[in-house]
């Protein structure tokens, strides 16, 4: 009878969980322990999808991949001290990739701070260099305010990372629910419109170009500008080049894609339309000798601070790529202009492209042992579904995989990215597979890993198994991390004090993987090509097309996770 007069009390866990739901977040990846055990339960009660991972770093990779795919941050939930420290590599990766991410860390109770609390650590300060926003709510009634701000900071302007810190006492504290400061959902970020004068400027430069080139980066993929960009290159017959994760905004198979003549395209282009890519190491800084020093750059970026970086742009446009490209199309159409396929530039690009394709095809046909990467990737490319999400990391595995494994759709390639982080693959694949479950249940996630890259986060294979995620992992095993000396050479160096021969340094031993984890052994490795390989791993005798065809049947079928059993 007195029920009506007693106000409902809520604790920090519940307030936080409901605030995350109120901001439209869906996925939480993390590892549970003190002081976030009750929080993880509150999250699930509130309807969030919690995925328990094996290492915080991988959890952080998964959360940021969800952020990239959905444009709403994935949450990474970790414990205090070491838990938060393990995420820093992941946070840096997200921040440098410009991907939205929200990290939530439990921390030691405030009355234990300064006297050696369990896992006590200055978490807000430690997270700050890798974040756009790092804060601890001053009280539990303010939690929704901070959650809204953290989400807004992660997706507005240039996307990035937010960190929120929750001391144990704050999570456990209770308050009358009416006291909680409620916050509205943070709306989608506003679209930045270009200055019309700059659109005309850009159109003029493109019209007067003799050797135009469109460069598409992962910013264009993030922007969801694929329809506009495809319309642009097709309507005006413009050559287009993608960065690694820009692949698929324009289909790699499209006739306008000149990736097979990449060096020539970059070197001789006189006018470049740069759509959501930075002129950093991935694009050789936009400078000679890889670029023409007189090249006129039209740079389009959502981040004003990025404009003119490394090379001054002729036209610097602060705008959303989709909006800008639509307006550019309008401008160019009104002048009935088209860059003709018959131009000398197209001739140069096409003949270079044919030449390079022939060289690659030749290598891809070579089945001698040790097998070369091109042969392996050619077979994989021939057999995997054309619309699958490809996760790729490793040194040669990633670099050669980038040219050999094609993407038809945007955001369908996830790799080591701008920061060149190895170990991202399994976390990314987990996120991609979950995304597929929700958005495209028949789509497959294929993880193509170098053996060393796989090793960084290999234990996440157990996470895939536990959640029955249909992921295929292909490990291209050349048995090591970079090169070094074999035993004899090493001994002789010790004896004679000089290097005689440089060979592979065997860091990782051969292992036996079973079932869907397909290991292609002895790639490009002369030293270990004779190593006996047993069970379901593949020896030099079986590394051939019939074996790789097996990948196809697995890839096409929706495999179940029961098959992920590691020896
Ligand atoms: P890549 O690795 O493909 O070269 P980068 O990560 O270097 O790509 O560059 C992506 C760029 O795209 C960043 O500078 C980012 O600010 C920008 N960007 C992200 N989203 C948008 C958008 N919607 N419109 C315009 N630029 C964007
Ligand atoms: Mg290797």
UniProtKB/TrEMBL annotation:
Reactions this protein catalyses: an (R)-2-hydroxy-long-chain-fatty acyl-CoA = a long-chain fatty aldehyde + formyl-CoA; 2-hydroxyoctadecanoyl-CoA = heptadecanal + formyl-CoA; a 2-hydroxy-3-methyl fatty acyl-CoA = a 2-methyl-branched fatty aldehyde + formyl-CoA
Species for this entry: Coptotermes formosanus (Formosan subterranean termite)
Family: Belongs to the TPP enzyme family.
EC number: 4.1.2.63
GO cellular component, as recorded: peroxisome
Range covered out of full length: 128 to 694 of 698
Residue stretches making up the Thiamine pyrophosphate enzyme N-terminal TPP-binding domain: 12-124
Segments passing through the bilayer: 416-436
Any Gene Ontology biological process: fatty acid alpha-oxidation
GO molecular function, one term: thiamine pyrophosphate binding
Alphabetically ordered keywords of this record: Lyase, Magnesium, Membrane, Metal-binding, Thiamine pyrophosphate, Transmembrane, Transmembrane helix
Positions of the Thiamine pyrophosphate enzyme central domain: 199-328
Protein name (record): 2-hydroxyacyl-CoA lyase
Cofactor: thiamine diphosphate
Residue stretches making up the Thiamine pyrophosphate enzyme TPP-binding domain: 394-480
